């Protein structure tokens, strides 16, 4: 087998401000919803900021950004997916003026990335709604939040127009359906299905307005969407199971359909009608939604199965065990071939450039000393990522226009789901435990040099063993 990765392929890693920056109350930053989720998206919402919340300080990228970016450059990164902390720019979300110190921080980061020829791929909203907007307006359940979001977008577009070309609107936008606070700042009445879909509509509208703004004023920009992508298999060959799969696929495609095709698909209109869901769509909304993204990005960690006993549409993303596959420690089906399948499916459906902006292996790594150096022997991560990249290579051979791969996360960071450090994804180990103890020193894992070799060879090293 040969490497099919194109010459200009983006190789890199992906992070989120709330999981790496820390400095939650430094230089004028306001509070985000993350400060009230001390146990992550799977835990209860707190009514105050707790010292036990690891995201308050995270891995201190805010002060160590240059050191970390140097390590990314050493690996050979040509791209870094990162997010801007909205509350670092507008501390309350509805402020009249932006926070200059927050803007200056990203000025430094983007300038340094440009100096090192690392392309920033910037997520505008990565689970980081300012808390004040959640408390005062119930986040994107209110159309007012669209206006505050657009003011923030206009501010960062204008400020970084010469430093950032690739922008993603909302991270894992389809997570609104099962985690509305995390994904859309919806604090009150989160279990109200009608309210959830109103937040969905307002968020999709905000995303389309970002595209519209870029097309009108920043013509060099490329705007992408980002969703969780989960290929679905039928448990049996029974037609009922295939109907269940079709419905689950709609859960995958709904957000892509609107953002890449520009309108609400028929199946969602039927779902609204049969479930008495009545979203408020104002005059002109349908026209705005026609502003479609330039490229499509997604996270890929697992596949799932569908059967007639689990065929409710939009009932969450809890994966069902596939008896033909191995599972991770957290019960996720490990399925490299699923990546090839979803890449082909998305390409055939939308015919827009694709980018894998999250993929990786979470594990409880052990720091050891080897040849006088602190490291982690993470062959399990290397094998996982190698298997997935080989399938991405297959998809490119199939004709898929895949333009980049940014692993999650290139450096250990705080988990979004559980707010722990012990579920580690990085090529770089960070000395920090779940209780917040540690030096924050950085150590290269075995996967660091492996990924470095993959990038340097543009994927050819993935097939070295086969060619011997």
From TrEMBL:
Species lineage: Bacteria, Bacillati, Mycoplasmatota, Mycoplasmoidales, Metamycoplasmataceae
Cross-referenced Pfam families: Glyco_hydro_1
GO molecular function: hydrolase activity, acting on glycosyl bonds
The EC number(s) this enzyme carries: 3.2.1.-
Protein name (database record): Glycoside hydrolase family 1 protein
PANTHER family: 6-PHOSPHO-BETA-GLUCOSIDASE ASCB-RELATED, GLYCOSYL HYDROLASE
Keyword NAD among UniProt keywords: no
Keywords associated with the record: Glycosidase, Hydrolase
Superkingdom assignment: Bacteria
Family per record: Belongs to the glycosyl hydrolase 1 family.
Species for this entry: Mesomycoplasma lagogenitalium
């Amino acid at each position: 087998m040969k490497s099919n990765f194109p010459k200009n392929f983006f190789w890199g890693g992906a992070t989120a401000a709330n999981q790496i920056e820390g400095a939650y109350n430094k230089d004028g930053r306001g509070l985000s919803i993350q400060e009230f989720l001390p146990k992550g998206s799977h835990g209860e919402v707190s009514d105050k900021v707790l010292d036990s919340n690891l995201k308050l300080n995270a891995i201190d990228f805010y002060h160590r950004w240059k050191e970390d970016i140097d390590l990314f450059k050493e690996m050979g990164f040509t791209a870094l997916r990162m997010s801007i902390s909205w509350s670092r720019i507008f501390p309350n979300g509805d402020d009249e003026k932006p926070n200059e110190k927050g803007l200056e921080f990203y000025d430094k980061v983007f300038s340094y990335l440009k100096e090192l020829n690392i392309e920033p791929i910037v997520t505008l909203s990565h689970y980081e709604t300012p808390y004040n907007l959640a408390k005062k307006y119930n986040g994107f359940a209110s159309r007012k939040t669209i206006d505050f979001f657009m003011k923030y977008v206009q501010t960062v577009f204008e400020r970084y127009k010469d430093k950032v070309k690739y922008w993603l609107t909302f991270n894992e936008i389809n997570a609104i359906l099962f985690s509305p606070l995390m994904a859309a700042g919806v604090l009150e009445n989160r279990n109200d299905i009608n309210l959830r879909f109103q937040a969905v509509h307002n968020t999709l509208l905000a995303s389309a307005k970002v595209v519209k703004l870029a097309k009108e004023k920043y013509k060099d920009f490329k705007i992408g969407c980002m969703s969780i992508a989960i290929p679905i298999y039928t448990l049996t060959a029974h037609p009922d199971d295939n109907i269940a799969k079709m419905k689950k696929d709609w859960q995958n495609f709904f957000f892509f359909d609107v953002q890449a095709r520009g309108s609400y698909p028929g199946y969602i209109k039927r779902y609204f009608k049969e479930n008495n869901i009545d979203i408020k769509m104002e005059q002109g909304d349908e026209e705005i939604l026609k502003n479609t993204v330039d490229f499509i990005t997604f996270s890929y960690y697992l596949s799932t199965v569908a059967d007639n006993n689990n065929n409710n549409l939009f009932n969450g993303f809890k994966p069902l065990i596939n008896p033909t596959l191995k599972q991770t420690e957290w019960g996720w089906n490990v399925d490299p071939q699923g990546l090839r399948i979803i890449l082909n499916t998305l390409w055939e459906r939308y015919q827009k450039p694709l980018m894998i902006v999250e993929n990786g292996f979470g594990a409880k790594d052990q720091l050891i000393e080897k040849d006088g150096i602190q490291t982690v022997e993470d062959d399990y991560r290397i094998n996982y990522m190698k298997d997935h990249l080989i399938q991405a290579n297959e998809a490119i051979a199939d004709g898929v226009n895949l333009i980049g791969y940014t692993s999650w996360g290139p450096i250990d960071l705080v988990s979004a789901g559980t707010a722990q450090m012990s579920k580690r994804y990085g090529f770089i180990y960070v000395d920090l435990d779940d209780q917040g103890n540690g030096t924050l020193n950085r150590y290269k894992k075995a996967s660091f040099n492996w990924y470095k070799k993959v990038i340097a060879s543009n994927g050819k090293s993935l097939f070295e063993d086969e060619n011997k």
